[in-house]
Structure prediction request, 336 residues.
Amino acid sequence: MSKSYTVAVVGATGAVGIEMIETLEKRNFPVKKLHLYASERSVGKTLKFRGENIPVELLTPNIFGGVDFALFSAGASRSKEFAAPAVNAGAVVIDNSSAFRMEPDVPLVVPEVNPEDAKKHKGIIANPNCSTAIMLVAVYPLHKANPVTRIVVSTYQAASGAGAKAMAELEEQTAKLLRGEKEVHASALPQRIAFNLFPHVDVFLENGYTKEEMKFVNESRKIMHHPTLMISATCVRVPVYRAHSEAVNIEFERPMTPAEGREILKKSPGVQVVDDPANKKYPMPIDASGMYDCLVGRIRQDCSRTDGRGLDLFVSGDQLLKGAALNAVQIAELLI
Prediction:
């Protein structure tokens, strides 16, 4: 009989936690017992898993006995507080927050890119930022064929990237404005999101970039084992419900044609090439929502270069799945 595992989902009632539970079920992860943990306000709720109602229990440091995998999506402060007790109890922690990503002894893993790093863990494995994961699924196969030297990326990030409250805010504001109300209030997001967009994702740093933008730089270098990779990112929140999109400009060591790039991506894991602009086929967040694969299209030569060493492409990926819950479950799959 094949082995089964006791799994804990920490932050079970959040947008990513719910996707983790569904992903475990959809991918037939060998779960022997599932524990759901959250803060006091969620205790007593139940969530369905394989037809059974599982109660949400209070997250405390002493609840991890017997847990094989603890999938964390409860924010960095919770991860810092509860990951060590989980590891000490014998669990492998797969953490979706920013708490441990840049720790030198914590692997930062996208299974399509650096699966071998997962095996080097000392109890904790980090999930990258959602935007980084979505970009690297598309960029890394090209990098393997022809080393990438520089990336300029602009993102179009859905409200769901800021959590369930931001998704609700987009709905409420849109409904109010369509009813003719003039005043809408922003609380989950820094600006009004309905019929608007703003270049402000996460907090601003002294260098003028946001934390989210610098995550692209630091995390991509670590995941790709490419410390000299040059990246500049601009992250924009857009009034899309779910799934992030990215316009990516890539510079290579050697020339690469769009046809070559397309052929490489067609054979790459976690990618679907949707690239037929003449028939209005290209990646869109509405199509990527709910999908495990990232959609890649608009693959074209960078016309600002004469040396053929640049490609432009457009990517859409579900940041609750590939950017978070799916990536975490895939990491657990690597370990079993």
User: Anything to note?
Assistant: The mean pLDDT is 97.
